[in-house]
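Recap from last week: sequence in, structure out.
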Amino acid sequence: MSQGLRTMIEIVNDHIAAQAALAGNAEAMLREAHKAEIRMTKRFESDPSLATFTAHYADALVNVLKVVPPELHAIVIRNLIAQVVAEWEDCAIEFNAQIGNDGP
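Predicted C-alpha cells:
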C-alpha cells in the first residue's frame, strides 16, 4: 500500500525525530553512532575528496567557534553546514561538467 511521494522536508523531519528518539537510550545511540562511523569511513575511503573537504570545514568551524560568542554558535554552525552543502554541490557540478554530466 503506497502512501505516495513524500516531500524532502517530511523525510528530513522523520530522520530528525528518529535521531532525537535515541536520546533516552544510550545503547541504541552508541549502536547508531557505530553504524554511522562505519558508513562515514567507507564513504571517505571511496571518495577521499569528501574526507579532505570535511576536514577543511571541520577545522574552519573549530577556529570560528573560538572567536564567536557562545550565544552565536548555533547560527554559525547552521550557516556553515549550509555553506558546506552548497560548496560540495558546486564541486560536484564542476567535476561533472568536465566529464559531460549535468547533475551533481
